Amino acid sequence: MPAEDTEKDQDGEPTLAARLAAASMKDKHTGKLTDTIEIAVGMKAMVLVNIAVETDVANGTRGTVKDILLDPRDDHCDVEDGAVQLKYPPAMILFRPDKRSNFRFEGVAEGLIPISPSKALFTAKGKNGKKYKMTRHQYALTPRIRIHRL
C-alpha cells in the first residue's frame, strides 16, 4: 500500500518532482515511514515508532495484524496476483500486541489496539536542488521476521 504524501505548496497532491524527491529518501529521513508497505490480516508485525505509549504500543512492540479497515476513498480496489492494491493507507488497523495490554477501546474487542496511519513532516530535495515540504501518512509497521539460529 502506498503512503499518502501531500506537498505543502501544492495544496495536497504533490508534483511529480516532489514525489520523485520523496521516493529517493531513506526511511530515517521520512519519520521511519516508508513510501510503500505490504500488510495482511494475520501478519506478524513490529511497530517502528511510539504510536500509543499509554497502551504499551511503542517502537519495537511485536504483535499480529488482526483486521484492516479500508479508507472510504478506496471504494474500488484492484486485485493483482491475489493482493489488493490500495490507493490510500487503510483508515485503521486492528493490532494485537504479543504482550497483553489492559487498555480497552470502546467498540473494539479486548486485546486489540486500533492503529491509525502515522504522520511525518519532512523536506525532500529534488535533483534540481529545489526543496519540497512534504507530509506523509503511512503505517509505521514492518513484517516481523523470526531468525532461527542453527
Task: Describe what you observe in this structure.
With 150 residues, the chain is mostly beta strands. It has one domain (4-143). Helices cover 5% and strands 33% of the residues. The chain has one helix at 16-23, and strands spanning 4-7, 44-47, 62-69, 78-80, 83-85, 92-97, 113-115, 118-125, 131-138, 141-143. The chain has a 5-stranded antiparallel β-sheet, with no helix packed on it. Strands 1-9-8 form a 3-stranded antiparallel β-sheet. The radius of gyration is 17 Å and the shape is globular.
What structural keywords apply?
single chain; 150 residues; mainly beta; 5-stranded antiparallel β-sheet; 3-stranded antiparallel β-sheet; 5% helix; globular
Bulk shape: globular
Strand percentage lies at 25-35%
In helices, the fraction of residues equals under 10%
- What is the radius of gyration computed over CA atoms, rounded to a whole number of angstroms? 17 Å
Task: Enumerate the spans where pLDDT stays under 50 for 5 or more consecutive residues.
Answer: none
Along the chain, the helix and strand elements come as EHEEEEEEEEE
The DSSP helix count reads 1
- Tally the structural domains: 1
Q: Report strand order across the widest sheet.
A: 7-6-3-2-10
Distance between the termini: 35 Å
pLDDT average, as an integer?
87
The overall strand count is: 10
Largest sheet: 5 strands, antiparallel
Q: What structural class should be given to the helix and strand makeup? A: mainly beta
